[in-house]
Amino acid sequence: MEGTDRTGTRARALHAEAGTRHTSSVVEPVRTCVGCRATDSRSALLRVVAGGHGDLVPDLRRCLPGRGAWLHPTEDCFALAVRRRAFGRALRVSAPLDTAAVAEWITTHEQTTNRPKGTESGFDADEHPMRTQQ
After folding, report:
1. Which of 18, 69, 79, 120 is least surrounded by Cβ atoms within 10 Å, i.e. has the fewest?
2. Is the whole-model pTM more than 0.70?
């Protein structure tokens, strides 16, 4: 009988011949952005699902039911996805979708993450890290 035996020695021998090894590092799932079509880690992308009334809903906890589309949380990727009509294809929905909720979330998210760097504390602010007294 060819193939693997119960101990898996044949499978290990095949991997050794091919030069492949299993690594013990943790690999995060990779998803594709529907806007720019670039792959990125799941934690870097925003999951969007079709709501019950023909609207798009940002799934911040990544647990809403239904088919999801992944998107970089930037206005550029969002505009590309809307222009390419990628949400309908990714979510397999034929009706036009209302993207207002996702657009609003992305604009507020970009405003909160792009803070001016002039209000930093620590070494960059006064050249003395963690110094409280003079």
Report:
1. 18
2. no
